[in-house]
Specification:
By secondary structure, this protein is α+β, with helices and mostly antiparallel strands. The chain contains 23 helices and 61 strands.
Length: 1304
């Protein structure tokens, strides 16, 4: 009887956030100790181990045979069922652990919450390919991305689903994945990463149902074991428990391969305490731990839709350390394991015995890759020495060997083989080739033809030692910098999918050339190194840009990103297909191949500064960049996505790298562009500021002006030996008066002496008002091109005249410390300056004074404790964002000079930027290649910021993840075919507690201090701003076409659109719908010719069904309690009529009224005002407000009832306007009300004018119409009075501020 042990669930506590655990670039000494403490904390809780190589999935033929065989042998016995933990208790415990993790990781930020991550595509973990059984041309791949995985459609390489984080805290990373589309489940192995290394110590297994983790167990016995590979062995039937006991369900059989690392006894290792409970679960675990010779084992796990069951443990031979495994085709219940030292064994997982130990590959290095070939009994074996052996498993013989050499030279070590894949499409068979793709650790992909050459006889010894005449079809070098992680051919397609270890890219190669070479068909790429500088495209130019707030342009969703890998990319926060890398020149790849160097060596150095202006983007380049240790600036075109325009440099600087480069003092350190887009200012290390014309690239002077470059004074220079200038000077010294010449030489000499003294004073002032031998760290130009602001490392802030290049008379202004960053707001002319003492000051360029200081002379709770890496203003200039290398971002309120939000991250932020609309702000972090995007909660819910009580603790922000993007209709149909991804859940966002939900839904209107004061509502801007653009939103969300009948619907989906249905109930429903439609059309018809009443109707003219329908309607009317007189008979026509006060008339059509109408009625009856109406509307969304207002009256035909509600609504708006509370929201409601009912009110006014001209007597209806028009007039007067009052108060405040600014 097989013994079964249920895996103990690992409850890993969430690590607490602390600034000491963050790896700071400015404090490297503390990083190693904190990482070791965190690792020890993880290891002391649950057993874990180390991971190594990638895995190979089993073929479909062997899966089916294994499933049948395992089903016959009844894998799970009754003894095993007793050891299985109850599923309901497991789910509850998992839910509790997940809730605890999310509660600990997600902070309670006042303003922001995670939105998504852009630019993160892959990690160093291999993906798993899942072809769809229903379609041979479609496949999905599951790609790990840190603590989550994403499912990518191979047709467009677009993410269609993103999972939630794995249990175990933020330090766990995914190592392997395996998806089962039939059960809609995904299995992942995960664990913490080694300190200072990207290797994952996979020790746990988690079961996902679509995106939700439902069960997690610990696989590794202790911290010395790790999961090195995971493969699937098919499916089997297992007994169910609980309510469905006695039934069976499908389960996936998964084999996990563990390796024990040899420990160095000399190292300072601390034994793990507290694992007695784990050892008591299984009697064999103690023996396994005591046996030091056992270095590998196999664990079989059964995964159902609801949980995991550990089936059995298999010990591997002593001293065998597994690295990779594969399930050979037609080998039932058997797997081949490769290990260290070229050892390879065949194991029967059902019996737990080693069937055979291979001897053909001894001393060949570590086996790193195994792949089943299309031929039976043949495997491809890749080793760490760069060799690929074709091995016959049945005969234990090597057929031939393929050798790979290092591309850099023959003396270098051969690259390690990381992945293998065989091509199986029909095109290869027609060409007579058998391609094998080999991925190596140097990033090269080699395509070999395994077909032996014709008429060639090679001995067995030669075949074993060489490639036996096999040819290399093509070799794609440096496809993935850092190494190939995983590659695989799509089934029956000439398409090769590959990912890299550190390249952060997904590539799809197609082999359709006659010479069998490949080309890139599709690709998704990101940065290979962490970004160092990010900026939204054209920030602060929202007056020109049609931004996302108006819904008319998507340019505000683009982020420019510069990385240490020398690449310059643009990322779209809306659609990942718009991501691209800016070109740095044509033919760089070809030139690099010709020179025999890497392409990176031809790229520009790392970007350290960028500036853009949208004003002249259609005429020439609108983006300028400066680079590290580089003097020249480069112009780019964002429309073309490439470097376009001249190189900004001085005339005497050499462009060629073969000549003398510009001096170090000329290296660029800061950058700014004018608002007009014509000029660019570049600051240097030596303190000189150069001015260039962006269109021509010509130099336009320096700050301060240099004599050799001062073209204005070049004509006034005296030249030695020039007689003409001497004569002119003599003539000026003589004065002619009344024909007499008077000499005033003494006075001239005095003037010359005075002028010399004045020039000396000016020289001293110019010297003081300049950055001499100090780097210019920040530049900014005002909106009118009048003033240039510069700050430097010499603590000086200097204002320059943009035209004359002369410093301001009051310059320089000495700052409290050396400046490191500068950010300027052109609307308010405020400049935020980051200082070396980790503080920030706000300088008013109009008042010429420091008006705000943040983090100076304050406690450590209200200031940064590390260097400030970046800073930025909000779109309105009221908020200042500062990022620091202490791992935090602070949000400052400029008017009140207080910190309103404090965010902390797992890694230090290196740069930040805000969207032009203010809805999002993005951050880049150290050791992360993706960009984190955060959304402002004040745009969709009420946020209360108390400046008097700044945050005392930072909010721990959970890292955002990539989200599944919407696809078109064709892609939705494709996804509907996949059972594992039938539905797309909402993107994973941070959980919100019940308290936060209550606070977000509860609306509290600010109370005015005095009656009549204009107050704002405090509602999110989206509540009332979107009321002005609802038509645009409706047009954008309008469906493209009506729904159509699916071309091939499954048998269990019946199409209801067929009129020839044989179901009687369907016929009755269709007839009833038809009668109701005809009745509705007749009620609106003006044709009264066919109407008859009582006995005048001819029953012979009506069909029997018609008569029956009329009888049913008459019976329904009698049951409904309608007041029908006996003397009046029912009409035979379809126009229903009823007698009212002796006369017959058509039935009035009733319209739907919203809750707003009933609330208006209640407030009118109570006569207590309409304040409840204002509070109710404030809780609705823009679309709900539009529906509520539109249902008050449906047009001129609805005035019989709607006129009363229009009058009540105008009274409500009049009262709200006169109170002057919630001013912006009430005006938005008024705008929407007039937009919906303006035509109706105008029609009422015209009708009253016609009635007065006809001299008809007034009725109650007409009197109410007049009251409505009078109320409308009063509303107009009240709205105009409040608007003029607000305009007058605003003008007075502006005049007062201007007066105070002049007094300074």
């Amino acid at each position: 009887m097989v013994s079964t042990r249920t895996g103990r669930r690992s409850k890993i506590p969430t690590p607490k956030g602390s600034n000491e655990d963050v790896v700071n670039e400015f404090h490297e000494s503390s990083s190693s100790s904190s990482a070791e403490e965190e690792e020890d904390e993880e290891e002391s809780v649950a057993p874990q181990a180390v991971v190594s190589s990638s895995s190979s999935s089993a073929s479909s033929a062997s899966d089916g045979s294994d499933a049948e065989h395992m089903e016959e042998e009844s894998v799970v016995d009754n003894d095993e069922e007793e050891s299985v933990v109850d599923k309901e208790e497991e789910e509850e415990s998992v839910a509790e652990s997940v809730a605890e993790e999310e509660e600990g990781c997600v902070g309670s930020s006042r303003l922001f919450q995670p939105h998504r991550t852009v630019g993160l595509l892959t990690t160093n973990a291999p993906y798993s390919l899942s072809p769809l059984a229903s379609s041979s041309a479609e496949a999905f791949c599951t790609i790990p991305i840190g603590d989550r995985f994403q499912i990518v459609n191979t047709q467009k390489l677009a993410p269609v689903l993103v999972s939630q984080a794995v249990p175990g805290g933020g330090g766990h990373q995914i190592a392997h994945t395996y998806s089962d589309d039939a059960l809609s489940t995904t299995l992942v192995t995960h664990g913490p990463t080694l300190s200072g290394d990207s290797c994952v110590m996979a020790r746990h297994l988690t079961l996902y149902k679509r995106t939700q983790p439902i069960h997690s167990i610990a696989i590794a016995p202790n911290k010395h074991w790790n999961i090195v590979d995971m493969i699937g062995l098919g499916r089997t039937k297992v007994d169910m428990h609980g309510e469905k006991e006695g039934k069976q369900e499908n389960a996936t059989i998964v084999a996990l391969f563990l390796r024990k690392e040899k420990q160095d006894h000399d190292s300072n290792t601390v034994p793990v305490v507290g694992n007695d409970e784990e050892s008591s679960d299984d009697d064999d675990s103690d023996d396994e731990d005591e046996d030091e010779d056992c270095l590998g084992q196999v664990v079989l796990v059964l995964a159902t839709r609801d949980g995991l069951r550990m089936h059995r443990h298999i010990r591997l031979p002593n001293q065998f350390q597994p690295t990779v495994a594969v399930h050979p085709s037609t080998y039932i219940n058997k797997v081949v394991l490769g290990g260290i030292g070229g050892s390879m064994i065949l194991v029967n997982v059902r019996s737990g015995k080693v069937v055979h130990t291979f001897t053909c590959l001894k001393d060949e290095g570590t086996i790193t890759a195994l792949e089943q070939s299309p031929a039976v009994d043949t495997l491809a074996v890749g080793t760490s020495t760069g060799h690929v052996h074709l091995v016959n498993v049945r005969h234990d013989a090597t057929l031939f060997t393929l050798h790979h050499k290092n591309a850099t030279g023959p003396k270098k070590k051969a690259p390690r083989v990381t992945s293998l894949s065989f091509r199986t499409d029909g095109a290869a068979v027609r060409y007579g080739i058998a391609p094998l793709a080999v991925g190596c650790s140097d990033g090269t992909i080699s395509i070999w033809d395994l077909t032996p050459p014709p008429q060639t006889k090679i001995s067995s010894a030669a075949a074993a030692s060489s490639a036996a005449g096999r040819t290399l079809l093509c070799q794609m070098k440096h496809v993935h910098p850092g190494g190939v992680c995983k590659l695989s051919y799509l089934p029956q397609e000439p398409l090769l999918l590959s990912t890299g270890t550190t390249s952060n890219s997904i590539l799809m190669h197609v082999f359709d050339n006659p010479n069998h070479t490949g080309r890139i068909l599709r690709q998704r790429k990101g940065h290979t190194a962490p970004p160092c500088l990010i900026r939204y495209l054209h920030p602060g130019s929202s007056s020109i840009l049609a931004n996302q707030a108006d819904g008319t342009d998507a340019s505000s969703c683009q982020i420019l990103s510069a990385s240490r890998d020398k690449s310059f990319r643009v990322f779209s926060t809306a659609r990942s297909v718009l991501d691209k890398e800016y070109s740095q020149g044509k033919g760089l790849a070809k030139r690099a191949r010709e020179l025999g160097i890497d392409k990176k060596e031809l790229l520009l150095p790392q970007v350290v500064g960028m500036a853009s202006s949208e004003a002249r983007s259609r005429d020439w380049g609108d983006l300028v960049t400066i680079h590290r240790d580089h003097a020249m600036a480069y112009v780019w075109s964002t429309n073309r996505g490439a470097q376009s325009g001249p190189v900004l440099r001085q005339k005497h600087w050499n462009v060629s790298a073969m000549q003398v480069p510009p001096p170090t003092s000329a290296h660029a350190t800061s950058l700014a562009m004018s608002s007009c887009g014509n000029f660019c200012l570049v600051g240097t290390k030596g303190g000189t500021i150069y001015k260039y014309n962006v269109q021509s690239g010509a130099a336009r002077g320096t700050y301060p002006p240099q004599q050799e470059d001062d073209s204005a004074n070049s004509k006034r220079k005296a030249v030695a030996g020039d007689i003409g200038r001497t004569m002119k000077s003599l003539e000026k010294s003589l004065k002619l008066s009344n024909g007499k010449v008077f000499s005033d030489v003494d006075k001239m000499e005095q003037n010359m002496v005075a002028e010399a003294k004045l020039e000396a004073k000016r020289a001293v002032k110019r010297l003081a008002a300049s950055h001499i031998d100090a780097a210019v760290t920040g530049l900014a130009v005002d909106s009118l091109n009048r003033t240039l602001v510069s700050v430097g490392a010499d603590r000086k802030l200097i204002l320059w005249s943009f035209v004359t290049h002369a410093p301001h008379k009051s310059s320089p202004y000495m700052l409290p410390s050396s400046a490191t960053k500068l950010c300027h707001v052109k609307d308010s002319d405020l400049a935020a300056i980051a200082l070396e003492d980790y503080s920030v000051v706000i300088f008013d360029c109009a008042a010429l004074a420091i008006v705000r200081q943040f983090g100076r002379g304050q406690s450590t709770m209200t200031k940064h404790t590390g260097p400030i890496s970046d800073l930025a203003f909000g779109p309105d200039g009221r908020r200042l964002f500062t990022a620091s290398l202490d791992g935090t971002v602070r949000v400052w309120d400029v008017p009140t000079s207080t910190c309103v939000d404090w965010l902390t991250f797992t890694t230090p932020p290196t740069s930040l930027t805000l969207s032009p609309t203010g809805e999002f702000f993005a951050t880049s972090h150290a050791k992360k290649v993706g960009l984190s995007l955060w959304c402002d909660k004040s745009f969709f819910q009420t946020v209360h910021l108390d400046g008097a009580h700044p945050p005392l603790k930072p909010a721990r922000m959970d890292d955002p993840v990539p989200i599944a993007e919407d696809e078109d209709d064709e892609d939705r149909d494709t996804m509907a075919k996949a059972a594992v991804w039938q539905t797309q859940p909402a993107p994973v966002t941070s959980p919100v507690s019940d308290k936060d939900k209550d606070d977000s839904n509860k609306y509290e209107r600010p109370e005015p201090k005095e009656k009549g004061i204009i107050t704002l509502s405090g509602l999110p801007p989206g509540h009332w701003k979107n009321l002005f653009h609802l038509e645009l939103v409706k047009e954008r969300n309008k469906p493209k076409e009506a729904p159509k009948k699916p071309p091939s619907a499954p048998f269990f989906l019946q199409w209801r659109g067929d009129s020839n249905s044989s179901n009687p109930s369907n016929d009755i429903d269709a007839e009833k719908a038809k009668d109701d439609g005809q009745e509705w059309d007749a009620a609106w018809s003006d044709d009264d010719e066919g109407e008859t009443v009582g006995d005048e109707a001819d029953p012979s003219n009506n069909a029997p069904d018609e008569v029956t329908g009329k009888k049913k309607r008459r019976a329904n009317e009698k049951e409904s309690g309608g007041d029908t007189k006996k003397s009046t008979k029912e009409p035979s026509s379809r126009i229903l009529s009823s007698t009212m006060e002796g006369g017959s008339k058509r039935r009035r059509v009733s319209h739907y009224r919203s809750h707003l109408a009933s609330l208006l009625e209640d407030c009118n009856a109570k006569e207590e005002g309409f304040e409840l109406v204002t509070r109710h509307v404030a809780t609705l969304g823009p679309s709900a407000i539009d529906v509520a207002l539109s249902n008050l009256c449906h047009g001129m035909h609805d005035l019989e009832e709607g006129l009363h509600y229009l009058h009540l609504a105008t009274r409500w708006l009049l009262e709200a306007t006169q109170s002057r509370e919630s001013y912006e929201a009430v005006n938005a409601y008024l705008h929407r009300f007039l937009h919906l009912h303006g035509h109706t009110i105008a029609g009422i006014r015209d009708d009253i004018g016609n009635t007065m001209n006809a001299m008809k007597p007034s009725t109650d209806d007409e009197s109410e119409r007049r009251l409505l028009l009078e109320t409308i007039g009063q509303l107009r007067v009240a709205q105009q009075a409040s608007s003029e009052g607000l305009r007058e108060k605003t003008q007075q405040a502006l005049c007062l501020l201007q007066h105070f600014s002049r007094m300074v």
